[in-house]
Task: structure prediction
Amino acid sequence: QLQLVESGGGLVQSGGSQRLSCAASGSTLEYYDIGWFRQVPGKEREGVACIIRSGEYRKYVDSVKGRFTISRDNAENTVYLQMNSLKPGDTAVYYCAAVYGAGPLCRPSREQYAYWGQGTQFTVSS
Result:
């Protein structure tokens, strides 16, 4: 059973950078597409970015394009989310999720992902 654990959350000032990590255990991450999601109280969980199992295709939502970069190291069984030019609106609980990868594309749509981490709180102060 694939298990995911996020880390790297905390408090950062507006304009700063932070990298979140998603470490996998129980299975080999190279078989899975990975998505990053975030959620604030009272709102639905929204997709941020995704990356296919090979790393050759990545997708970002408009609000983070040019600021966030998703990457993966299959040898380390870890996926990363590098976040730059941070804004207070990026404050949320961040989750990584996985789905068995079978195609050349991915979408950061939560209904498609089967395995979820517990989330890590990330706050951007103004």
Q: What stands out?
A: Residues 10 and 122 are 5 Å apart (CA to CA). The chain is about 0% helix and 50% strand.
